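Lab notebook page, bench 4
Experiment: in silico fold of construct C2
Operator: M.H.
Input chain length: 542 residues
Purpose: comparison with the prior construct
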Amino acid sequence: MLGKLTDEVRTVSPTLFTIACQNPATLEKLGEVPSLSPSDVSERLARARQAQVVWGQTSFAERRRVLRMLLDYIIEHQTEICRLCSVDSGKTMADAAMGEIFPVCEKIRYLIDHGEADLRSDKRPSGLLMHKAARVEYLPLGVVGVICPWNFPFHNILCPTVPALFAGNAVIAKTSEWTAWSAADFQAIFDEVLTKAGYSPDLVQVITGDGETGRALVNSGVEKIFFTGSPENGRKVMAAAAQTLTPVVLELGGKDPMIICDDADLNQAVGSAMLGVFTACGQMCVAAERLYVFDGIYDRFVDEVVRRAKSLRQGPPSQDEGGQFDVGALTMPRQLEIIDRQIQDAVKKGARVLVGGRRNPSLAGQFFEPTVVVDCDHTMDLVKQETFGPVMTIIRVRSEEEAIRLANDSSYGLGSSVFTKNSRRAERIAKGISAGMTVVNDYGIAYMVQSAPFGGVRISGFGRINGREGLRSCCHIKTVVTDKLPIHMPISLYPIRRGTFPMLDGAVRLFYGNGLVNRAKGAVQVGRSLWSMLEESRRGTP
């Protein structure tokens, strides 16, 4: 069960390749986990297929029952789950609660309340074929593969898995090698819930491994891949999936703009900016990585975010007694180098660091100080490239047009936000931003609206998760056409006669022509052609 934290070293077979795990906040060694081979993945797939046969035939009521059990388990063990995420990724307990627990619970609640309606057979108009009835059915795919990033260890497993499960699929989810320590504990959650519900735990399998394991999963023959990660790795997944024509949903990186107009509520804008930049140490695809602040509010905004950023406390979450730390550690050691390089590039090009700007010298773990950088522009890597760190990048703008132009001057297009008290202005700016989502006078809440699809444009990926669209992406979408009226006469086309094409030509004019005159001409042409064909038939003319 849960609670296998830093004091327990798990044993693995010496014949297997392993991944060494550590706490990024303390650099404490946690132990090792297995790195599955392609043959291991194939064996897991076979087990998943067998389990899915039974699960795919269950009713929506039964699936709701299982999801309710899963939700109850998460609620009861949320502290242990948050602690696991904290140890594995370096985030604070508060960040874990906000980013790991709340969205998972909300997703499960949405599926329980609305999932059946979203997947109910959908009647469609039959158009010209008035004697037929058409519908669309949403059927299980089979086995779905999920490849998870490291920034939200629990959420990134659960949020693709739960809708796929509700749609009737089995799931194999590969965790990131950087947060692989918690995988066994999260597998234990599914094992307990599924076994208690009367189903095989093979229905959901959480696996560990490196890039080779991920490639093996993509190439294994799963019916679909859900990948979350960088655009670079997204391209690799897409290229590998193309070999077997396996469909993919790619939720990739972001460089989200936040536009703060001169009539914005200052306290609201500052609070949202702090949340969008420093939550999870900025390690979010929807982090507010570019702040475009209007000239009229710029100085006041900068003064206030500097004041608040200087007050942020940073340290190892495992030593956090009574919530004394606001910001945790970075999960990947490489991010320290990326952030430092981007800031140094910005400073060389004229930017000023008002707060932070360096690796925290007082802490041994992977900590980068909460940072505020001003006088930024689009020549800087800090503005152009994904940062994925606790860095507030502020750019002064003087008009709506400039703000929108700069917001769209990016290869990314995931989320965005705009702050203004003028609703018409908000709508104008929101409409002008090229992104998958825009939130007005708030940050990041589009993801919590589980009825709405989540995803990006350009190199932020394609396909959607969440909402009706995301749930249906876990399905085989099948069209079924049946009889509405007992008409059992075939369309008589063969043998083709001299009047066949004129009849079809006239039929097009009759059914689709513009105006009564054109349609009448079509009807006359059809009538003449049918009479001609009838005469041919009577004479025996071929």
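Observations: The chain has three domains: 35-252+468-479, 256-450, 491-539. The longest strand covers residues 132-140.
Next step: discuss at group meeting.
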